[in-house]
Amino acid sequence: MALHPYDLYDVRSMLSEEERAVQDTVARFTDEKVLPIIGECFDAGRFPKELIPEIANLGLLGSSLPEQYGCAGLNSVSYGLICQELERGDSGIRSFVSVQSSLCMYPIYAYGSEEQRQRWLPEMAAGKVIGCFGLTEPHGGSDPANMKTHAKRDGGDWVINGAKMWITNGNLADIAIVWAQTDEGIQGFIVEKGMPGFAAQEIKHKMSLRASVTSALYFDNVRVPEANRLPNVKGLKGPLGCLTQARYGITWGPIGAAIACLDEALRYSKERILFGRPVAATQAAQLKLADMARRITLAQLLSLQLGRLKDAGTMQPTQVSLAKWNNVRMALDIAREARDLLGGAGITTEHCPIRHALNLESVVTYEGTETVHQLVVGRELTGINAF
After folding, report:
1. Is 54 tagged catalytic?
2. Global pTM?
3. Which of 61, 110, 186, 284 is least surrounded by Cβ atoms within 10 Å, i.e. has the fewest?
4. Four-point Cα dihedral 74, 19, 31, 124, nearest 10
5. Of 19, 87, 264, 367, which residue is the catalytic one?
6. CA 21, CA 16: separation in Å to the nearest integer?
């Protein structure tokens, strides 16, 4: 029997029946609802908000959180497969789900009070309340400890001042999970849209993640009640714990983008006739296609094992860094090679490789640059912090 070109090691056979069902469901959604419109959305710089109700109805928001909060209660591998199939459509769609699930719903679940969980999580799972995650600052980037946004107690409230930058979903969001310096260390707050002094400004002129909303957030004496403070965490471990959750999904997402690029390059090279034969009949093309399949296979096995470790409760942040570094770099390189195989046709958004390549320029940077993840692994190996 011929091997599946995008699953040479039969990784699918290692999945449970439920995991395969989740993958198939999200794959159909991507094929039927995302792919027909996403090129146009990218060209127009528009996030397809009309997809949010169906994304929610499929149980893709907060999919790993307990059913008692209106969530699907799926395992970590299923969440990874969701990310893979969504990013096969576009990084912007996966980013929306990743931020809502891992960066907004997760901290409310992990660090919030039971009252906060009951108030927000069911509405967020239903897509009726959209969240964003305010950590990165204009000058901060890879050094979140150098945080300038601060919150000060004032009676029974907190008053927040500062700014956040590069915030996915910012102008879509009904709430923002905002991290700020306090006299008691870094703490998280649920800032609600419409609170006086809170503003979001969409960032334009992007050449990447164009089918995604990216914003700057501003806080000018924003008064937040004590009931909106996340009570169960203090210090950087709060936001970093959220990022570990999101980075886990990011290790899976680019596999989908890479598969989409390989699929297009394979089909195009078989159909494109040059010098009397298909491009796919040349050694140069086959070497490139084979290398794409090799790297996808390695990434699939890496993320699957990472998911099993996460479900077993033994996953370590360094393991997430290794997979994020490897898999995003893999996908970016494949997108560029696929663009090259398509020749001139590869520069248009009628084909997916240039769109994925541009998107992945953001994915390789956000939630830890490639260099940061390399240094995390280096610190693990040497015991020396080189940051």
Report:
1. no
2. 0.95
3. 284
4. 0
5. 367
6. 9
